[in-house]
Amino acid sequence: MIKTFSNIEELSNFAAEKFVEIGNQAIKKHGKFTVALAGGSTPRSLYQLLVSDDFKDKIDWEKVFFFFGDERDVSPASNQSNFKMANEILFKPLEIQKTNIFRWQTEIINAKEVAEQYEKYVRKFFKIEPNEFPKFDLILLGMGDDGHTASLFPHTKALLENGKIAVAEMVKKLNSNRLTLTFPTINNASNIIFLVSGENKAKSLHKVLETEFQPEKFPAQGVKPTNGKLFWLIDEAAAECLTK
Ligand code: 6PG
After folding, report:
1. E strand spans, 69-175
2. Torsion angles phi and psi, residue 40, rounded to 5
3. Is the C-beta atom of 184 inside 6 A of ligand 1?
4. 44 lines ligand 1 (CB under 6 A)
5. What is the mean pLDDT of residues 170-176?
6. By C-alpha distance, which of 42, 67, 15, 18 is closest to 181?
């Protein structure tokens, strides 16, 4: 499902409504809501809305468990950290308990070990067998202007990972390690919401949504939930190059 909005504010408001709707359904169904947050800048306004008077009382935050779809290989105190962004905007204002937050432990020096640790974390929480994947109630994703999503970048080995939940990858174009959930994990989610805003995304959004399937070039094309729902929430600027 693709929904276009005039601007990021309207997009974020719809996303906040969806977040609460999916969250309350999950809590009703199995007593908790597991969500993997997106990093980058686009989700900031959604997170700010969730702590606002319009939304903060619409869900029982004690039953919400926060994970991260990806992370940069930096300290959790770094301004580059997706955890730090969420902690400042979301967790602190809502006084989310540490026991409800599962961040990538990037203080571990070796990125591979960070990914292995995160995999253990997720497996333990979801109580799954070695050959199973977790089923997140919701995974929020952004999309880069190169068509990457989470930290699944074009032409990287991480795109081909089909056994692990979490991997580390040296991303040459960034000259840095990135940590990311893998496609089998993402595609096992019950709900996936892409948040895409801005004219700098327009060209890649057209390629992802309207051209042939080449996920090695445009990784966001690889997000195809097996049994879940997929929502593309985009603003008019990002939709600029779409033909349909
Ligand atoms: C990250 C994100 C990444 C992000 C896109 C879009 O760690 O940066 O997870 O996948 O969603 O790069 O980023 P913006 O929202 O900043 O455009």
Report:
1. 70-72, 138-141, 166-171
2. 75, -165
3. no
4. no
5. 94
6. 67
Q: Decide if pLDDT at 233 tops 90.
A: yes
Cα gap 101→25, rounded to integer Å: 20
With residues binned 3-state (H G I as helix, E B as strand, rest as coil), the percentages for the chain, rounded to 5, are 35, 20, 45
150 lines ligand 1 (CB under 6 A): yes
> Whole-prediction pTM value?
0.97
Q: Which ligand 1 atom sits closest to the C-alpha of 42?
A: 15
User: What distance in angstroms lies between residue 173's CA and the mean position of ligand 1's atoms?
Assistant: 14
Test site for ligand 1: of 70, 139, 146, most ligand atoms within 8 A of the Cβ: 70
Burial class (CB in 10 A: 0-12, 13-18, 19+), 169: buried
* Confidence (pLDDT) at 232: 98
Q: Would the CB of 144 count as within 6 Å of ligand 1?
A: yes
What are the Cα distances from residue 81, in Å, to 50, 92, 140, 233?
20, 15, 16, 24
